[in-house]
Specification:
By secondary structure, the protein is an alpha/beta fold. It has twelve helices and 15 strands. The chain folds into two domains: about 1-115 and about 315-375, Rossmann fold, CATH 3.40.50; about 145-310, RecF/RecN/SMC, N-terminal domain (Glutathione S-transferase Yfyf (Class Pi), Chain A, domain 2), CATH 1.20.1050.90. The strands form three sheets. A six-stranded antiparallel beta sheet has the order 2-1-4-5-6-7. Strands 8-12-13-3-14-15 form a six-stranded mixed beta sheet, with helices on both faces. A three-stranded antiparallel beta sheet has the order 9-10-11. It starts with a strand and ends with a strand. The mean pLDDT is about 95. Bound molecules: adenosine-5'-triphosphate (ATP). Adenosine-5'-triphosphate binds near residues 12, 62 and 349. One of its GO terms (biological process) is double-strand break repair. Keywords: ATP-binding, Cytoplasm, DNA damage, DNA repair, DNA replication, DNA-binding, Nucleotide-binding, SOS response. The RecF protein is involved in DNA metabolism; it is required for DNA replication and normal SOS inducibility. RecF binds preferentially to single-stranded, linear DNA. It also seems to bind ATP.
Protein backbone atom coordinates (compact mmCIF):
# COMPACT_ATOMS: atom_id res chain seq x y z
CA UNK A 1 0.00 0.00 0.00
CA UNK A 2 1.12 3.55 -0.62
CA UNK A 3 0.05 6.70 1.20
CA UNK A 4 -0.29 9.31 -1.56
CA UNK A 5 -1.30 12.29 0.49
CA UNK A 6 -2.22 13.49 3.91
CA UNK A 7 -4.18 16.56 4.94
CA UNK A 8 -4.10 17.73 8.55
CA UNK A 9 -6.47 20.37 9.83
CA UNK A 10 -6.29 21.68 13.39
CA UNK A 11 -4.43 18.56 14.39
CA UNK A 12 -1.71 19.10 17.07
CA UNK A 13 0.42 22.01 15.80
CA UNK A 14 -0.82 21.77 12.18
CA UNK A 15 -3.43 24.37 11.26
CA UNK A 16 -4.01 23.37 7.66
CA UNK A 17 -1.30 21.34 5.99
CA UNK A 18 -1.39 19.05 2.97
CA UNK A 19 1.51 16.74 2.09
CA UNK A 20 2.06 14.58 -0.99
CA UNK A 21 4.35 11.60 -0.79
CA UNK A 22 6.42 11.04 -3.87
CA UNK A 23 8.96 8.34 -3.04
CA UNK A 24 9.07 5.04 -1.17
CA UNK A 25 10.94 6.81 1.60
CA UNK A 26 10.19 10.24 3.01
CA UNK A 27 12.54 11.90 5.46
CA UNK A 28 11.00 14.63 7.62
CA UNK A 29 13.78 16.78 8.96
CA UNK A 30 13.44 19.55 11.52
CA UNK A 31 14.44 20.79 14.94
CA UNK A 32 12.82 19.50 18.10
CA UNK A 33 9.15 20.24 18.73
CA UNK A 34 8.32 21.30 15.14
CA UNK A 35 5.69 18.64 14.40
CA UNK A 36 7.58 15.67 12.94
CA UNK A 37 6.23 13.12 15.41
CA UNK A 38 2.79 14.70 15.17
CA UNK A 39 2.68 13.82 11.48
CA UNK A 40 3.60 10.19 12.14
CA UNK A 41 1.03 10.12 14.92
CA UNK A 42 -1.64 11.17 12.39
CA UNK A 43 -0.71 8.21 10.17
CA UNK A 44 -0.69 5.86 13.18
CA UNK A 45 -4.19 7.06 14.07
CA UNK A 46 -5.49 6.24 10.61
CA UNK A 47 -4.01 2.75 10.84
CA UNK A 48 -5.01 1.82 14.37
CA UNK A 49 -7.36 4.55 15.65
CA UNK A 50 -4.93 4.70 18.58
CA UNK A 51 -2.02 6.94 19.44
CA UNK A 52 0.83 5.63 21.54
CA UNK A 53 1.31 9.16 22.91
CA UNK A 54 -2.16 10.03 24.09
CA UNK A 55 -5.51 8.40 24.67
CA UNK A 56 -7.47 11.64 24.86
CA UNK A 57 -8.72 13.23 21.66
CA UNK A 58 -8.60 16.57 23.43
CA UNK A 59 -4.78 16.42 23.25
CA UNK A 60 -4.82 15.71 19.52
CA UNK A 61 -7.09 18.58 18.51
CA UNK A 62 -5.25 21.89 18.15
CA UNK A 63 -5.29 23.91 21.32
CA UNK A 64 -8.23 26.30 21.28
CA UNK A 65 -10.07 24.43 18.51
CA UNK A 66 -13.18 22.30 18.89
CA UNK A 67 -12.46 19.92 16.08
CA UNK A 68 -9.49 18.62 14.13
CA UNK A 69 -9.24 16.25 11.20
CA UNK A 70 -6.91 13.90 9.35
CA UNK A 71 -7.64 13.00 5.73
CA UNK A 72 -5.59 10.73 3.50
CA UNK A 73 -5.55 9.06 0.13
CA UNK A 74 -4.18 5.56 0.16
CA UNK A 75 -3.40 3.41 -2.87
CA UNK A 76 -4.08 -0.26 -2.34
CA UNK A 77 -3.86 -3.13 -4.81
CA UNK A 78 -7.65 -2.98 -5.08
CA UNK A 79 -7.69 0.79 -5.85
CA UNK A 80 -7.48 4.14 -4.06
CA UNK A 81 -9.29 4.83 -0.81
CA UNK A 82 -9.96 8.15 0.91
CA UNK A 83 -9.77 7.93 4.68
CA UNK A 84 -11.16 10.55 7.03
CA UNK A 85 -10.99 10.92 10.80
CA UNK A 86 -12.59 13.81 12.66
CA UNK A 87 -11.50 14.34 16.26
CA UNK A 88 -13.35 16.47 18.76
CA UNK A 89 -12.10 18.06 21.95
CA UNK A 90 -15.35 16.99 23.53
CA UNK A 91 -17.47 14.40 21.83
CA UNK A 92 -17.02 11.30 19.75
CA UNK A 93 -14.82 10.81 16.73
CA UNK A 94 -16.20 10.16 13.30
CA UNK A 95 -14.55 8.03 10.65
CA UNK A 96 -15.24 7.86 6.95
CA UNK A 97 -14.15 5.87 3.93
CA UNK A 98 -14.49 7.41 0.47
CA UNK A 99 -16.56 10.23 1.96
CA UNK A 100 -19.05 7.89 3.59
CA UNK A 101 -19.34 8.17 7.37
CA UNK A 102 -19.14 4.77 9.01
CA UNK A 103 -21.41 3.73 11.84
CA UNK A 104 -18.85 1.51 13.51
CA UNK A 105 -15.18 2.37 13.96
CA UNK A 106 -14.15 -1.25 13.47
CA UNK A 107 -15.24 -0.97 9.82
CA UNK A 108 -12.53 1.66 9.38
CA UNK A 109 -9.75 -0.50 10.81
CA UNK A 110 -7.86 -2.73 8.42
CA UNK A 111 -7.92 -0.19 5.57
CA UNK A 112 -4.44 1.14 6.25
CA UNK A 113 -1.70 -0.77 8.05
CA UNK A 114 1.39 0.69 9.68
CA UNK A 115 4.20 -0.32 11.98
CA UNK A 116 5.50 2.40 14.30
CA UNK A 117 9.03 2.34 15.62
CA UNK A 118 10.20 5.03 18.03
CA UNK A 119 12.73 5.26 20.83
CA UNK A 120 9.83 4.68 23.23
CA UNK A 121 9.70 1.12 21.89
CA UNK A 122 12.69 0.17 24.03
CA UNK A 123 10.12 0.19 26.82
CA UNK A 124 8.67 -2.86 25.14
CA UNK A 125 11.63 -4.78 26.50
CA UNK A 126 12.64 -2.71 29.52
CA UNK A 127 9.30 -1.43 30.76
CA UNK A 128 6.46 -3.03 32.68
CA UNK A 129 4.08 -5.64 31.21
CA UNK A 130 1.55 -2.94 30.24
CA UNK A 131 3.85 -1.89 27.37
CA UNK A 132 3.92 -5.43 26.01
CA UNK A 133 0.15 -5.78 26.31
CA UNK A 134 -0.32 -2.52 24.43
CA UNK A 135 2.06 -3.74 21.74
CA UNK A 136 0.22 -7.01 21.14
CA UNK A 137 -3.17 -5.27 21.29
CA UNK A 138 -2.17 -2.69 18.68
CA UNK A 139 -0.84 -5.45 16.45
CA UNK A 140 -3.99 -7.51 16.89
CA UNK A 141 -6.16 -4.52 16.02
CA UNK A 142 -4.46 -4.51 12.63
CA UNK A 143 -4.51 -8.27 12.13
CA UNK A 144 -8.12 -8.78 13.26
CA UNK A 145 -9.93 -5.41 13.46
CA UNK A 146 -12.84 -6.94 15.39
CA UNK A 147 -10.40 -7.38 18.27
CA UNK A 148 -10.64 -3.62 18.95
CA UNK A 149 -14.32 -4.06 19.73
CA UNK A 150 -13.70 -7.11 21.90
CA UNK A 151 -11.02 -5.34 23.91
CA UNK A 152 -13.33 -2.39 24.44
CA UNK A 153 -16.06 -4.68 25.80
CA UNK A 154 -13.58 -6.41 28.09
CA UNK A 155 -12.28 -3.08 29.41
CA UNK A 156 -15.83 -1.95 30.10
CA UNK A 157 -16.67 -5.12 32.05
CA UNK A 158 -13.42 -4.79 33.98
CA UNK A 159 -14.15 -1.17 34.84
CA UNK A 160 -17.62 -2.03 36.11
CA UNK A 161 -16.36 -4.95 38.16
CA UNK A 162 -13.65 -2.74 39.69
CA UNK A 163 -16.22 -0.07 40.51
CA UNK A 164 -18.29 -2.66 42.35
CA UNK A 165 -15.26 -3.88 44.32
CA UNK A 166 -14.38 -0.28 45.17
CA UNK A 167 -17.87 0.58 46.39
CA UNK A 168 -17.42 -1.91 49.20
CA UNK A 169 -14.08 -0.44 50.15
CA UNK A 170 -14.01 0.14 53.89
CA UNK A 171 -11.71 3.07 53.24
CA UNK A 172 -14.43 5.08 51.56
CA UNK A 173 -16.98 6.74 53.78
CA UNK A 174 -19.97 5.55 51.78
CA UNK A 175 -18.92 1.88 51.94
CA UNK A 176 -21.70 -0.56 51.12
CA UNK A 177 -21.60 -4.36 51.49
CA UNK A 178 -20.32 -6.23 48.45
CA UNK A 179 -23.21 -7.20 46.16
CA UNK A 180 -22.23 -10.82 45.50
CA UNK A 181 -25.00 -11.50 42.99
CA UNK A 182 -23.89 -8.51 40.90
CA UNK A 183 -20.27 -9.57 41.24
CA UNK A 184 -21.13 -13.04 39.90
CA UNK A 185 -22.65 -11.37 36.82
CA UNK A 186 -19.43 -9.45 36.19
CA UNK A 187 -17.34 -12.58 36.86
CA UNK A 188 -19.16 -14.41 34.09
CA UNK A 189 -18.78 -11.45 31.68
CA UNK A 190 -15.12 -11.04 32.50
CA UNK A 191 -14.43 -14.74 31.99
CA UNK A 192 -16.28 -14.91 28.67
CA UNK A 193 -14.76 -11.77 27.17
CA UNK A 194 -11.36 -12.35 28.83
CA UNK A 195 -11.14 -15.83 27.34
CA UNK A 196 -11.67 -14.41 23.88
CA UNK A 197 -8.94 -11.81 24.46
CA UNK A 198 -6.52 -14.44 25.79
CA UNK A 199 -7.07 -16.81 22.88
CA UNK A 200 -6.50 -14.08 20.34
CA UNK A 201 -3.36 -12.86 22.08
CA UNK A 202 -2.02 -16.42 22.25
CA UNK A 203 -2.70 -16.84 18.55
CA UNK A 204 -0.99 -13.56 17.63
CA UNK A 205 2.09 -14.38 19.70
CA UNK A 206 2.31 -17.83 18.16
CA UNK A 207 2.22 -16.18 14.74
CA UNK A 208 4.73 -13.40 15.37
CA UNK A 209 7.23 -15.43 17.41
CA UNK A 210 8.82 -17.37 14.50
CA UNK A 211 9.30 -14.14 12.52
CA UNK A 212 10.88 -12.32 15.49
CA UNK A 213 13.05 -15.29 16.39
CA UNK A 214 14.27 -15.48 12.81
CA UNK A 215 15.18 -11.76 12.70
CA UNK A 216 16.85 -11.85 16.07
CA UNK A 217 19.07 -14.74 14.99
CA UNK A 218 19.79 -12.95 11.73
CA UNK A 219 20.72 -9.57 13.28
CA UNK A 220 22.82 -11.16 16.01
CA UNK A 221 24.76 -13.22 13.48
CA UNK A 222 23.32 -16.47 14.91
CA UNK A 223 24.99 -15.83 18.27
CA UNK A 224 21.73 -15.32 20.08
CA UNK A 225 18.46 -17.10 20.17
CA UNK A 226 15.29 -15.34 21.17
CA UNK A 227 12.26 -17.00 22.67
CA UNK A 228 8.89 -15.29 23.06
CA UNK A 229 6.43 -16.78 25.49
CA UNK A 230 2.94 -15.70 26.38
CA UNK A 231 2.29 -15.88 30.11
CA UNK A 232 -1.44 -15.25 30.55
CA UNK A 233 -2.76 -14.44 34.01
CA UNK A 234 -5.15 -17.37 33.61
CA UNK A 235 -3.52 -20.77 33.04
CA UNK A 236 -4.07 -21.91 29.48
CA UNK A 237 -3.05 -25.46 28.85
CA UNK A 238 -5.03 -25.99 25.68
CA UNK A 239 -6.67 -23.60 23.23
CA UNK A 240 -10.11 -24.67 24.38
CA UNK A 241 -12.53 -21.84 25.25
CA UNK A 242 -14.54 -23.92 27.75
CA UNK A 243 -11.43 -25.02 29.63
CA UNK A 244 -9.96 -21.50 29.70
CA UNK A 245 -13.24 -20.05 30.93
CA UNK A 246 -13.39 -22.66 33.72
CA UNK A 247 -9.78 -21.92 34.70
CA UNK A 248 -10.63 -18.20 34.65
CA UNK A 249 -13.57 -18.59 37.06
CA UNK A 250 -11.54 -20.94 39.26
CA UNK A 251 -8.74 -18.38 39.53
CA UNK A 252 -11.26 -15.64 40.37
CA UNK A 253 -12.49 -17.87 43.21
CA UNK A 254 -8.94 -18.40 44.44
CA UNK A 255 -8.22 -14.66 44.47
CA UNK A 256 -11.58 -13.58 45.92
CA UNK A 257 -10.23 -12.56 49.32
CA UNK A 258 -7.25 -10.73 47.87
CA UNK A 259 -9.58 -8.85 45.50
CA UNK A 260 -11.81 -7.76 48.37
CA UNK A 261 -8.80 -6.51 50.27
CA UNK A 262 -7.28 -4.71 47.30
CA UNK A 263 -10.65 -3.64 45.79
CA UNK A 264 -9.55 -4.41 42.28
CA UNK A 265 -9.71 -7.25 39.76
CA UNK A 266 -6.59 -9.38 40.00
CA UNK A 267 -7.37 -11.97 37.32
CA UNK A 268 -7.66 -11.50 33.57
CA UNK A 269 -5.81 -10.42 30.44
CA UNK A 270 -5.18 -6.97 31.93
CA UNK A 271 -2.57 -8.78 34.08
CA UNK A 272 -0.98 -10.81 31.24
CA UNK A 273 2.75 -10.86 30.58
CA UNK A 274 4.76 -11.58 27.44
CA UNK A 275 8.23 -12.87 28.20
CA UNK A 276 11.28 -12.36 26.01
CA UNK A 277 14.31 -14.50 26.71
CA UNK A 278 17.63 -14.33 24.92
CA UNK A 279 19.81 -17.43 25.21
CA UNK A 280 17.50 -18.59 28.02
CA UNK A 281 17.99 -15.37 30.03
CA UNK A 282 15.16 -12.85 30.59
CA UNK A 283 15.85 -9.89 28.30
CA UNK A 284 14.08 -7.39 30.54
CA UNK A 285 16.34 -7.76 33.56
CA UNK A 286 19.54 -9.10 32.07
CA UNK A 287 19.65 -8.04 28.41
CA UNK A 288 22.46 -5.64 27.50
CA UNK A 289 21.50 -2.38 25.74
CA UNK A 290 22.66 -3.86 22.44
CA UNK A 291 20.62 -7.03 22.93
CA UNK A 292 17.54 -5.01 23.84
CA UNK A 293 17.94 -2.86 20.73
CA UNK A 294 18.36 -5.96 18.56
CA UNK A 295 15.23 -7.41 20.12
CA UNK A 296 13.12 -4.32 19.43
CA UNK A 297 14.35 -4.16 15.84
CA UNK A 298 13.58 -7.88 15.41
CA UNK A 299 10.06 -7.33 16.78
CA UNK A 300 9.43 -4.43 14.40
CA UNK A 301 10.69 -6.36 11.37
CA UNK A 302 8.52 -9.28 12.47
CA UNK A 303 5.47 -6.98 12.68
CA UNK A 304 6.12 -5.76 9.14
CA UNK A 305 6.36 -9.28 7.77
CA UNK A 306 3.42 -10.64 9.73
CA UNK A 307 1.10 -7.78 8.76
CA UNK A 308 2.23 -8.12 5.17
CA UNK A 309 1.45 -11.83 5.13
CA UNK A 310 -1.97 -11.39 6.75
CA UNK A 311 -3.10 -8.24 4.92
CA UNK A 312 -1.54 -9.30 1.62
CA UNK A 313 0.18 -5.93 1.07
CA UNK A 314 3.22 -4.34 2.69
CA UNK A 315 2.25 -1.98 5.54
CA UNK A 316 3.77 1.48 6.04
CA UNK A 317 6.75 1.84 8.32
CA UNK A 318 6.97 4.89 10.59
CA UNK A 319 10.45 5.48 12.01
CA UNK A 320 10.29 8.18 14.64
CA UNK A 321 13.81 9.39 15.32
CA UNK A 322 15.24 5.89 15.63
CA UNK A 323 17.45 5.53 12.61
CA UNK A 324 20.24 7.66 14.02
CA UNK A 325 20.21 5.47 17.13
CA UNK A 326 20.85 2.30 15.17
CA UNK A 327 24.46 1.41 14.43
CA UNK A 328 25.45 1.02 10.73
CA UNK A 329 24.98 -2.76 10.84
CA UNK A 330 21.41 -2.52 12.12
CA UNK A 331 20.66 0.40 9.75
CA UNK A 332 21.71 -1.81 6.85
CA UNK A 333 19.62 -4.71 8.06
CA UNK A 334 16.59 -2.45 8.17
CA UNK A 335 17.35 -0.98 4.76
CA UNK A 336 17.87 -4.44 3.26
CA UNK A 337 14.56 -5.61 4.61
CA UNK A 338 12.38 -2.69 3.62
CA UNK A 339 14.10 -1.89 0.29
CA UNK A 340 11.47 -0.04 -1.70
CA UNK A 341 8.64 -2.41 -0.85
CA UNK A 342 7.58 -0.82 2.43
CA UNK A 343 6.72 2.87 2.21
CA UNK A 344 8.67 4.45 5.05
CA UNK A 345 8.27 7.82 6.79
CA UNK A 346 11.31 8.81 8.80
CA UNK A 347 11.76 11.71 11.20
CA UNK A 348 15.12 13.12 12.15
CA UNK A 349 16.71 16.28 13.48
CA UNK A 350 19.72 16.00 11.16
CA UNK A 351 20.51 14.26 7.91
CA UNK A 352 24.20 13.56 8.54
CA UNK A 353 23.62 10.22 10.28
CA UNK A 354 21.98 8.84 7.16
CA UNK A 355 23.69 6.42 4.91
CA UNK A 356 23.94 7.90 1.41
CA UNK A 357 21.85 4.98 0.14
CA UNK A 358 18.92 6.22 2.24
CA UNK A 359 19.25 9.78 1.00
CA UNK A 360 19.41 8.78 -2.66
CA UNK A 361 16.06 7.02 -2.57
CA UNK A 362 14.22 9.48 -0.34
CA UNK A 363 12.01 12.51 -0.65
CA UNK A 364 13.22 15.04 1.94
CA UNK A 365 10.77 17.46 3.58
CA UNK A 366 11.46 20.08 6.22
CA UNK A 367 9.16 20.63 9.17
CA UNK A 368 9.16 24.05 10.84
CA UNK A 369 6.50 25.06 13.37
CA UNK A 370 3.73 22.96 11.87
CA UNK A 371 4.60 23.81 8.26
CA UNK A 372 5.99 21.29 5.80
CA UNK A 373 7.98 22.18 2.69
CA UNK A 374 10.32 20.38 0.25
CA UNK A 375 13.93 20.60 1.44
N1 LIG B 1 -2.94 19.92 20.64
C1 LIG B 1 -1.92 20.69 20.27
N2 LIG B 1 -2.16 21.94 19.79
C2 LIG B 1 -1.15 22.72 19.38
N3 LIG B 1 0.14 22.36 19.42
C3 LIG B 1 0.43 21.15 19.87
C4 LIG B 1 -0.58 20.25 20.32
N4 LIG B 1 0.03 19.11 20.73
C5 LIG B 1 1.34 19.30 20.55
N5 LIG B 1 1.60 20.51 20.04
C6 LIG B 1 2.91 21.08 19.71
O1 LIG B 1 3.58 20.22 18.81
C7 LIG B 1 4.99 20.35 19.02
C8 LIG B 1 5.61 18.99 19.21
O2 LIG B 1 5.65 18.37 17.99
P1 LIG B 1 6.30 16.93 17.80
O3 LIG B 1 6.05 16.09 19.00
O4 LIG B 1 5.83 16.44 16.49
O5 LIG B 1 7.83 17.31 17.80
P2 LIG B 1 9.00 16.77 16.87
O6 LIG B 1 9.15 17.68 15.70
O7 LIG B 1 8.79 15.33 16.58
O8 LIG B 1 10.23 17.00 17.83
P3 LIG B 1 11.27 15.98 18.51
O9 LIG B 1 12.42 15.93 17.57
O10 LIG B 1 11.59 16.70 19.77
O11 LIG B 1 10.56 14.68 18.72
C9 LIG B 1 5.19 21.18 20.27
O12 LIG B 1 5.57 22.48 19.86
C10 LIG B 1 3.83 21.17 20.91
O13 LIG B 1 3.60 22.34 21.64
Amino acid sequence: MFLRSLHLRQFRNYRDQAVSFAAPKTILVGDNAQGKSNLLEAVELLATLRSHRSNRDRDLVQQGAEEGSIAARLDRDSGSVDLGLVLRSSGRRTVSLNGQTLKRQVEFLGTMSAVEFSSLDLELVRGGPGHRRQWIDTLLTQLEPVYAHLLQQYTLALRQRNALLKQSSSRTEAAIPLDRAQLAVWDAQLATLGTRVIRRRARAIARIAPFAEFWHRDISGSRESLEIRYAPSVPMEKDDPTLIQQAFLEKIRQRAIAEQVQHTTLVGPHRDEIEFTINHTPARQYGSQGQQRTLVLALKLAELKLIESVVGEPPLLLLDDVLAELDPKRQHKLLDTIQDRFQTLITTTHLDSFDSQWLRSSQVLTVVAGQIAPA
